Amino acid sequence: MVAVLAASAVATVPFVPVAAAQQQGKVLRVALTTGIDHLNPFTATLSAATQVGRFNYEFLTLPSAEDTQPTGGVAESWKTSDDKLTWTFTIRQGMKWSDGKPVTAQDPAYTFQRMLDDENARTANGSYVTNFASVSAPDDKTLVIKTKAPQSSMTSLDVPIVPKHIWEPIKDLNAPSTDEMAVVGVGSGPYLLTEYKKNEFVKFKANKDYWRGAPKVDELQLLQFKDAEAAVNALKQGEVDVINRLTPTQFDALKGEKNITTNKAPGRRYNEIILNFGVKNVADQPIGDGNPLLKDIRVRKAIAQAIDTQAIVDRVMSGYGQPGTGVVPAIYKAYTWSPGDAEKTKFDIGAANATLDQAGFAKGPDGIRVGPGGAKLEFRLAGHANRPFDQRTAQFVSGWLKDAGIGVKQELVSDDELNDRTTAGNYDLAISGYGTSPDPDYALSLNTCAARPNAEGNGGSSATFFCDPQFEDLYKKQLTEFDPAKRAEIVKQAQAVLANQYVDVVLDYDNVLEAYRSDKFASFAKQPQPDGAILEQTGYWGVYGATPADAAAASSEDGGSNTGLWIGIGAVVLVVLVGGGVLLGRRGKSADDRE
Amino acid sequence: MTEALSSLDQTSALVDPDERRGGTGTTRFVLSKIGGALASLALVVVLGFFLFRTLPGDPVRFMVRDRPTDAKMIAELRERMGVDKPLLQQFWDYVVALLQGDMGGSYLQQRPVADMIGERLWPTILLVGSATVLAIALGLWLGIRAGWRRGSRFDKVQTGLALTLWSVPQFWLGLILLVSTNGLFPSRGMHSPDVEPGFFSEGLDVLHHLVLPCVTLLVVFYAQYMLVMRSSLIGEMNSDYLTTARAKGLRDDLVRKRHAVPNALLPTVTLVFMQFGMVVSGAVSVEAVFSWPGLGQLLYEALRGPDLPVLQGVFVVLAGAVVLMNLLAELLYRVLDPRVRTA
Description:
heterodimer, A: 595 residues, alpha+beta, 7-stranded mixed β-sheet, globular, B: 343 residues, mainly alpha
C-alpha cells in the first residue's frame, strides 16, 4: 500500500504542467462511451468510429448544421438530369489533402468505384452504392454518377471521401495497416488524425488548410470510457470537456454543477410498439404466430387510443423526449407529421372501451373482453429485458390496456431473442424503435413491402411488416420528387397512411442528453440550430464549431491550487502511513521480546 | 485449501510405489500431470465451442444490426463466416485453425480474435499482476503478524478489516476511489494523450494510471492471503518442532521467521498459483470502471454483443491459464514439500 502511494505521489508531479496547458481551451477532449473498431473508413461500423471518419475526411455533400438540408463539401454544386438518373457534381477547387496533393474528382470517383468493386469496401456504407450504375470523373472538376433508379439520398451520401493516391495501392482493405497513420493520416476534414492508441484514445490536430477555415481548437481528443459513471465523474473533475449519451438521472445530477452546461436536444431515434396485424413475408405468405384478433383494425385502434404517449414521455423518459406521431422524428421538422385534431389518435380510455364495445367484444367477469367467437382479448407484449425504457413502458401499457379490457402478458427477453421473434413474426405486441437519418427515405423504407423478409425468413429490414398500395405509391412519389416542399408533403401523407392503419404506435422521440465544461468552452455548433445536439450529429459541426471560453475567464488558478492541495494531502498521507508502519513494526518487535 | 492438499496427498500416494521400484517416478509424475492438463485443455476447447453455440441469436443478423442489408449480402456473409456449414464441420474447422494459432475473427470488429486478445493481455497482466504481487506481500506480512499474536487487538482489527474488504464489491470500491480522489489520478485507460514521448515519462504515465485500479484490486485481493497465512501459521503454532526450537533457547522472532513461517507458507503457495491462474479473469469489473484496456474489458464487450468468436477465444485463454497454473502448482509443490514426495 505504502509503495503504491509513494509511486503515485511521484507520478503526480509531471502532470501538473499538462493540466495547466489544458486550461487554455486549446484542446477539446470528448468522452466516448462506445468503442472504435477501425479507423479505416471503409470498414468502420461502430458509431464512434464513423464519427472519426467524419472528422478526418470531407464528404461529397453533407447535412447542414442549420437545418440538416444538403450543403456542399467536396462538391461545390450538383445537378440531376430530368429522369433523375444522372447526377453531376462540380468538385470544389483549391482543396488539398493533408500531404499537399490536390483534391480532385478522381478521389470521390475512386472511393465509390472501390465500393462497387470490392466487397470489403462495402462493409460500412455499402447501402449507399447498391443502386449505382456507374461512377466516372470525365475531368478533375466533374464527377458523374448514374443510378439504376432514382435515389433521393444522393445529396446526403454518408461516405467519407478518401485520397485515391493513398488507397489505390492497398489491395486488402482488411489489412491491419489500413488503421495506421501512414494511411488514415492523410485526410481533408476539419481535424486530421495524428495518433491512435487502440481501446484508449484517438488524437487529431486542427487542419490549418481546411477549406471552411481552420477550427478554433488546436487539438481534438476522443477518450474512451467503458463506464458511464466514470465518464461523468471525469467531466466533473475537468478531465474531459464534452460528454453525451447521459441518462436522465446523470443529466439531472449535472444540471446544478458549477462550470458545466447541459444540453437537451431533439434526437434521431423513435420508440414504438408494433402490432402484429397478421404479418406476411415478401411473397405474401402469412408468417409467425400473432394473435388473429389483431387483424381487426378496431382492436388495433383501441390499443392506440389506450396508450398515453405524453405519460410515456413524462414518466418513463423523465420528461426527456417528445410524444411521437409519425416515423420521422421531430428533429427533422420539415418532414415530421403533425396530425390535426381530426387525424390524431388521442389518449382516451373511454373511447378505447367504446371502440371495443362496438366491435362486439364484451367484458368478461375478470374484466378481460371476450370476442364473438369466444376468444379472449389477451396479447403478449415483447420487449428488451435489459432496457429500463421497455421495462417501465411495458408496465404502463399493460395497465392502460387492462383499463380498456385487454389482457397483457409481458415477455421481456434478450435483444437477440426479441430480434428473432420480431423478424419471424412471432409476437402480438412488441416494443421496438429505430434511429433515423436526415433524409426521410430511410424511415419510410422500413415500412415498404420490399423490406419484408423473404420466404426463408432472411433479408428483411421491415420495422412493421407494413405493405399497403397507397403507402407504396406515396413512397415512390417522394423518391422522385425533388421539390423539397412538395416532397415533405408526400412524406407526411405517407406517415398518415401508416398511422391510420394502426400497425404501430409511435411512443416518443428520444432527447439527446449532453453536457460540457462551460469554463473551457463557450459554445459549440449545434445541429439543427439553435437547439440541436453537439456530438450526436450527421456531420462534424459540433466539434468544428467549438469556441474556447475566454482564456482570462477560465479558472486556471483553481486547477493549480487544487493540484497543489492534493499533492500536499498525498504527502501527508504518505508520512502518516510510513510513520505508522514503522511504529507498528517497532511495537511488534517489543511485544515479541516481551513474550 | 484442505481439499487441495488432500488431493495432492492422494496423487503422491499413487505414484510412490513406482518411485520405490525405479528412478522413473518423478518423470512419470510429471508426464501424468502434463497429460491431465492437456486433457483438460481439450475439454475446454470442446466445451467452449458447443457451449457458446447454444446461445440464442443469429451471428449474421447480429453483424448487420442497424444496417440496411439484402438477402444476397446476408448469404454472402454466412458463407464468409462459415456458419452455413454443419455444426460438426464448423467444429472441425475451428479445431484445425486453433492448432495453427488462429482463433477466428470477431463478428463485431471483423478482426482476428488472436490479435484482439494479444493486445489486451499485457495490460491485464500488468494490472492484476502488480496488484497480486503487492497483495501477496501485504497479505503475508499482515497474516504472519496477526497469526503470531492471535487474539490480540491487532489480530482482531486486521482480521475484521480483511473480512470486510474481501466482501466489498470491486465495482463499487473502484467508483468510490475514483470520486473521492477528486481527479488526483486519471480516471480512464493506461495512457494519457498529452504525455511527452520518452521511456521515463511514458512509464510514469502508465504508473499514474495504474494507481487507482491497482489499489482497488489490492484492497480486495490481500484479504485472502492474509487470512490463509494467519490460519496456516496458527495451525503450526502448537507443533512440537516449535517447542523444540524454543527449548533450544532461540529468540521468539527467530522461531517465527526460521521455523514457523516457512512451514506455514506451503498452503499459501497453492493459493498464489491458483490466483495467478485467475489473473486475467479477475479484473472484469475493475477494468470496466477504469476503462483499463485489458482482457476483462474485452470479455465485457464481447458478452454485451454477444461476439461468439471473441467469447470463445477469451474462454480458452482464461481456462488455459488456470490449467497451466494448476499444473505448475502441483509440480512445484512436489519440489517444495518433501512430505508429498516421500510420504
